[in-house]
């Protein structure tokens, strides 16, 4: 699969070379969309409750929160740094920060901005450590534990309530019938796609993941790219944390327990390679929808949490191994 | 491994452990009582056994993320089988763990896939299995089998069967690492994977052993822990991975592979539990353990980077040379390009 | 020398009419090779002559396409490392495979060497002692971690490992490439001692001086063919050199520059870890300098030092009047207009999975994205312009670079730098893995770029290439710059002598 969004030859060149690249560029995305559509059809045919509006909205909403974080986390994977396992705790910490600020009388906009700045700094610290050579998974494991502790410290173990109608609106409104989280998801899909394929930073991310040594020798500031991708993922988690707190008008430290794994699953199923160098936020978004659908479908079938989790884990294994075999390369040792 | 350099390193870590102990002994009442030391060693047992196995995968240059989930499954299986006696229950869970580890290690070796990614999948899948096995509830031992719990809590001064098992296992794994060919091979593939292959060492056997140990020991620890407490929950042992990795890092196991020893892990576990016990006695809340563990992990992670081969070393050299050169007034001399042959 | 038996018994190793091709590249075109018991046979030849292919076949890493191999007179198949080992063959490769954190004793016994019982350090030390003594490491404690030993000592441990495997045929590939004088003495005396003890040794090297000191016979490979072996006592250095070179000189080199422009790069007395002796060099716009030298000569190290990849510890570099900061980094160099291509494009020269278009734009990524947004128009203009300059067809743009031929890949690796309009281009092994036809093209493009004002320094172990393409030749041997001369005033013969045996060269 070629990287989505690479510039190609234009009409000044012989027509046959102009067609091929465009088609090839969109093929993976089209393929993913077709797979998703097929899954929807199959699911709908085999279970009546699946294709109702209420159900669809439920899927979209749960897809939205995972999806927003997954959009940000895609940058980490594309840059060749595997995954962050601190995003769930970052979301919790973001929600807690936001709730605490609101409950101390801060205006809404300020609370949001402050929370995002906090998550930005958290991401930058982790990114800096990784760019110095630390293992990203262990670093984020440690950071996640640290954040869980800090969240506990800040809240004293209790939920933090928010009394604010504007917050409640943000958490539960449905402009034009679509939940706010889903609007945010859709907007951020466009933003993420734009950043990845049209900006210098996005190209540098792809290139760093494709071959770090070549990127370094070509003059790319790999350490900067590494730091920023963690910032992006962290801020995305912060956004979701705010939404989570807004939805229930309280920040709970027990939330977002499985977020990291759903995010990893969404990225992998969306076809982003673990070694980095290719992948797209749009496909990750489709992956997130697919995961939400899968979870929803299994719920409708009455399958227990245990079975659903086992299947999710097994699914990740199968996808990882299949892609690994197809690509025929070592998993970036 | 047994050079003077490493012993020096180990002594530093022992000193750190002693320092932490003394700090709390002097500032917290009851810390140095035999009762508390017993409690500390008890808490060491679980993390210690798991860290021993996990440490072997780290030495081999890999990481087994699934240890927490394995421990949870093992605990559930052991409690469910407690009717057949402690030996059978523990043996069953452990054998299952070893078998799983062998398969995991074989797949990772054969596919030549990153263990981080692979064990992430098994981490999630096994957590689900734990819920399935326990029917989503906490399983408790039958009252008729409570004798097992009492037996496992038996106290010999400051030790218990659990902590004695840990010590025995750490010694045993340490023996294998130090005195067998396959132990050396683990260090070799961890510290120098490419050179090992070139030297004719196949990574398959050492990898299979490493993952069999990490899964088997996690299962052993999980089953003993649950039998000791009389119950097992499917969501249990979620913090075990972070604790074990932190203990290993404190003890000097490098994430880059090939460096560290079992004695180091033992010291690392002690240090961590000294700290956590001290915090608990000080009255810290439940989330303090998480905070402390996370913070300590990050600190030792940074130390590990500074030790290992990273771009930092070269940057430091450049910095020193640049500083040195800036003090010398520069004179432009154009030396003749050809040097006569001696 | 060793106790050579003169042909009475069958040779311990005999290879007849060995052919090996990799696709269209004929590495070995029917070579013969034999080795007698207890002798040291030197295997000589330029890079690409087929020496390493023969070594790989003996090690069992490759199988010959045609030909027979006889060990002790018995026909043997050597298709796998296991069979090679059971035939008693052991190879010490160019790249050391000693394992740093482990001790000397452990390194000797790891990797399939039989050792029964518990691996206590005491027992390992005892058993390792005799092997260490056999290779001249009597003073080394077997428990020492290998990473604390010098390169020479590691080399000897590698040989010790071969002995522990009870090999009767030892193949040493460039054993002294990275060693200093005193170290070389140790290796040489070890080799002689081993031969005297009955081991048969194949000594692959480019250091002709050593050959005359320790070898009994010499086999010379040239362009995939072998010369019949001759006794060392029957030949002179001159004759050996003559037999080594002389690849049909194809008409692939463009004419050299008539004159140069202003001096653009002034390297004054720089040293690095790999270049302990200060090296100086001057480069003019429009000039192509070729640095000739074999493995371990420092030719690559020189290029890497100027590029900033290796840390320059003393000396100065001035480019276009601007002094580079001390211990300058790669980024400093790029900013000053110095572009660098390493010898391994797959490692850090190209992005194999990304399109040609993307590859070409990376160094210039800032200039094609003026406000952070990548401008497709600029990318197109840039990549087309570069493609034109290196004769890459525009139809190649959307293809993944890894699917291109070696020559086209190299064009991408070199051409991408044109995006930043460099003043100096540094290249290591500019045509490695490139077939003849594409080579001529690359030479032409490099010359054209020079004519347009670029200054080029390239390091190569292919002396035909150095002599044919460069305006000025710098020869290096064992970390020392031997001389700098215009290419027109030196023959390839003399270049070869400089880089293999400079003591006899007349300057």
UniProtKB/TrEMBL annotation, chain A:
It holds the Pfam family BPD_transp_2. It is found in: Cell membrane. The chain crosses the membrane at residues 26-46, 58-76, 108-130, 137-156, 176-195, 221-244, 311-328. It is a multi-pass membrane protein. Keywords: Cell inner membrane, Cell membrane, Membrane, Transmembrane, Transmembrane helix, Transport. This is ABC transporter permease. It comes from Rhodococcus jostii.
TrEMBL record, chain C:
Pfam families: ABC_tran. InterPro entries: AAA+_ATPase, ABC_carbohydrate_import_ATPase, ABC_transporter-like_ATP-bd, ABC_transporter-like_CS, P-loop_NTPase. GO terms for molecular function: ATP binding. Keywords: ATP-binding, Nucleotide-binding, Repeat, Transport. Residues 13-248, 260-503 form the ABC transporter domain. This is Sugar ABC transporter ATP-binding protein. It comes from Rhodococcus jostii.
